[in-house]
Amino acid sequence: MLSLKNSRSGYKSVATKLKQSLEAQDPDVLTRSTYSMFMLKLQDISKKLEENHAQILDSCSDEDEANAHIADYETSLDALMEMSLMLSSWDDFLTRKETAEFLHQQPQPRSPIHGQVKVNLPKLELPRFSGKLEDWITFADLFTHVVHANTDLSGAQKLQYLKSALQGDAARLLDAITIADGNYDTAWKIVTDRYQ
């Protein structure tokens, strides 16, 4: 039990430092990578505290002892919830910022040529995805917010952005798909079915 309590103290210290670091961030310089880093750290420490709490409860000799540990754990949960809400507001802020920047650069759609659409798209700093599963959530989240859910883009424009963002094995999935309005939904389904 002593070892478990010591581990809990260490995890709580990590959570406290993480919260302090979150609160010290300047919203004006937030980036998607910073958000993703903090989210992964929060998920990691939340999981460790949950597993530690379950082990402590299993080691309790009576109900009073268990209730004391439950109260202590609930205090930690409050801090974790505060951080989760803070990160949720970060996500909303970054999504609005990314969408505004994207729409500001939005080009006029071009006419189809022989069944295909060729457009000169503005440069958009999307993350690259090469097929590594650990990178999928971050990539899919940003691509969905900025491109997939953008009703101002044609299917051909979305497909061009998707192809330009994929590398390696992921890019090879779409080798046979041409840039045309009707092909985007099929291409996005191929990629999401493979990595989601």
Describe it for me?
By secondary structure, the chain is an all-alpha fold. It has helices spanning 2-23, 32-59, 63-104, 133-148, 155-165, 168-172, 184-195; strands spanning 112-113, 116-117. Strands 1-2 form a two-stranded antiparallel ribbon. Strand 1 (112-113) and strand 2 form a beta hairpin.
Looking at this protein, list some descriptive labels.
196 residues
Q: Globular, elongated, flat, extended or rod-shaped: what is the shape? A: elongated
Calculate the mean pLDDT score and round it.
83
Major sheet summary line? 2 strands, antiparallel
Tally of structural domains: 2
User: Structural class of the helices, strands and pairings?
Assistant: mainly alpha
Order of helices and strands: HHHEEHHHH
State the low-pLDDT regions, or none.
111-119
The amount of helix comes to: 55-70%
